[in-house]
């Protein structure tokens, strides 16, 4: 029997990788997709999802217009699909943007989760439909040391506050109504499909453009922030595993390794033989290429957040023990994967650019 899954946020980074994984497992994948003036199929196309559908046994991929703010639409869709599993990935997922759009963020990220869980209850699907909630390491705020499932939450943004509501709503619907509902508390995970306004993709994309002469410099916010960065392809595997267990529970997925934004910048430039030296302090700090003396990085306070989360590092030993989950990509693999993709796309958009330096750089990978 093919299982049926509904993915909200199917057009996002995780939605694309999760769709691919579920199609490989012969799921019938349904996705909630926002109606907008531009078609948003890009990530599905980049992962060639349609090829997985035609090559697999009974698998299918179908998107449906809808919005996390539209209660009746969500109820109607869940009633029509009657999914075995719902993966709630839809969110206004940018932390900085949530300070500019706090009410919208609360509505989508917080109330949106409640709407889905209420739909399961109203339709009498408590025993039929399992539920995954995309919770986040942002819940921890500025806690010292490694964070585990017992670490208290202290959100520091409208984004995180809304996700806190969603986290506890998921726990409450599990306890109150017996719904198989899990929180995946995921630390930062990135990929070539990451949105270009998240820090890792901004860096790899800008470095590729600088390399090909399409951009002068990279303009950054707080480069001393530290994150536990993994690869999205590994993390979606953990999401699926959570819903295959005998008992619903909440799990951290993380690599347990921490790097600063500064280090991410240095390593990305180093891949293309640019050595960065830092001069100055605070907003006057600059990153300069040693060889040419050219300024490649500047700081702009516009990218600072009113309240910052300085350090995140996750302990995923519970997921390792009970789900047998562990990340497969290293930090260096992640940078290589993202940079290679961005170099290729910049190059393809400028097909006359010389490519020998890039080919030589990556020919062993
Ligand atoms: P993403 O690329 O920003 O994708 C977000 C998805 O949500 C997009 O498909 C977006 O649709 C959709 N969406 C936004 N508002 C919506 C609305 N009102 N109605 C319906 N859909 C809406 O995010 P991601 O990186 O894949 O992350 C997936 C989930 O995991 C998010 O909930 C995020 O908060 C959470 N999370 C992510 C990370 C991470 O490091 N990536 C870590 C922890 C938790 P459009 O394409 O139309 O914008
Ligand atoms: N976006 C961005 N742009 N961030 C910058 C910049 C910049 O120019 N300069 C420095 N940073 C710093 C941010 O201040 C933050 O400390 C860090 O880089 C990471 O920023 P993001 O990549 O935007 O991710 P995030 O950690 O705020 O949030 C992501 O991870 C969460 C899990 O911890 C998002 O994917 C959230 O949806 C997710 O929940």
Account of the 3D structure:
The C terminus is likely disordered. The protein is built from 13 helices and 15 strands. Helix 1 crosses helix 9, helix 6 runs parallel beside helix 7 and helix 10 crosses helix 12. The protein is 41% helix and 17% strand. The strands form 4 sheets. The chain has a 7-stranded parallel sheet, sandwiched between helices. The protein binds NADP nicotinamide-adenine-dinucleotide phosphate (NAP) and guanosine-5'-diphosphate-alpha-D-mannose. NADP nicotinamide-adenine-dinucleotide phosphate (NAP) binds next to helix 1 and strand 5.
Give a nutshell description of this structure.
The protein is α/β, with parallel strands linked by helices and 365 residues long.
Name the bound molecules.
NADP nicotinamide-adenine-dinucleotide phosphate, guanosine-5'-diphosphate-alpha-D-mannose
Name the strands of the widest sheet in spatial order: 3-2-1-4-5-6-11
Strand pairing plus helix content: what structural class?
Answer: alpha/beta
Oligomer: single chain
Number of helices: 13
Q: Give the uncertain stretches in residue-range form.
A: 352-365
The biggest sheet, with number of strands, parallel, antiparallel or mixed sense and barrel status, is: 7 strands, parallel
Proportion of beta-strand residues: 15-25%
N→C terminal distance: 39 Å
- How does the overall form come out from the CA principal axes? globular
Rg calc? 21 Å
The helicity comes to 40-55%
The total count of strands amounts to 15
SSE sequence, one letter per element: EHEHHEHEHHEHEEHEEEHEEHEEEHHH
Mean pLDDT: 94
């Amino acid at each position: 029997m093919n299982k049926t899954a509904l993915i909200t946020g199917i057009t996002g980074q995780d939605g694309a990788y999760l769709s691919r994984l579920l199609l490989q497992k012969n799921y019938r994948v349904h996705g909630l997709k926002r109606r907008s003036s531009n078609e948003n199929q890009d990530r599905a196309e980049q992962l060639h999802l349609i090829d997985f559908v035609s090559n697999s046994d009974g698998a299918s991929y179908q998107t449906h217009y809808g919005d996390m703010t539209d209660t009746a639409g969500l109820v109607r869709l869940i009633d029509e699909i009657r999914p075995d599993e719902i993966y709630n990935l839809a969110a206004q997922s940018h932390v900085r943007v949530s300070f500019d759009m706090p009410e919208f963020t609360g509505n989508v990220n917080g109330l949106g989760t409640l709407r889905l869980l209420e739909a399961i209850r109203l339709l009498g699907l408590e025993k039929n439909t399992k539920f995954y909630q995309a919770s986040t390491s942002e819940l921890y705020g500025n806690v010292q040391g490694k964070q585990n499932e017992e670490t208290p939450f202290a959100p520091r943004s409208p984004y995180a506050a809304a996700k806190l509501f969603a986290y506890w709503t998921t726990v409450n619907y599990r306890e109150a109504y017996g719904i198989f509902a899990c929180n995946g508390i995921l630390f930062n995970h990135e990929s070539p499909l990451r949105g270009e306004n998240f820090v890792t993709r901004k860096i790899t994309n800008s470095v590729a453009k600088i390399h090909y002469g399409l951009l002068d410099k990279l303009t950054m916010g707080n480069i001393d922030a530290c994150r536990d960065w993994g690869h999205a392809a590994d993390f979606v595997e953990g999401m699926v595993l959570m819903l295959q267990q005998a008992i619903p529970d909440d799990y951290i997925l993380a690599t347990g390794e921490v790097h600063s934004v500064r280090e991410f910048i240095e390593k990305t430039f180093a891949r293309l033989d640019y050595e960065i030296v830092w001069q100055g302090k605070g907003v006057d700090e600059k990153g300069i290429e040693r060889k040419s003396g050219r300024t490649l990085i500047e700081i702009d306070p516009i990218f600072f957040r009113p309240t910052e989360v300085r350090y995140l590092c996750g302990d995923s030993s519970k997921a390792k023990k009970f789900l047998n989950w562990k990340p497969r990509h290293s930090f260096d693999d992640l940078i290589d994967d993202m940079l290679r993709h961005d170099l290729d796309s910049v190059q393809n958009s400028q097909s006359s650019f010389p490519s020998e330096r890039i080919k030589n750089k990556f020919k062993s990978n």
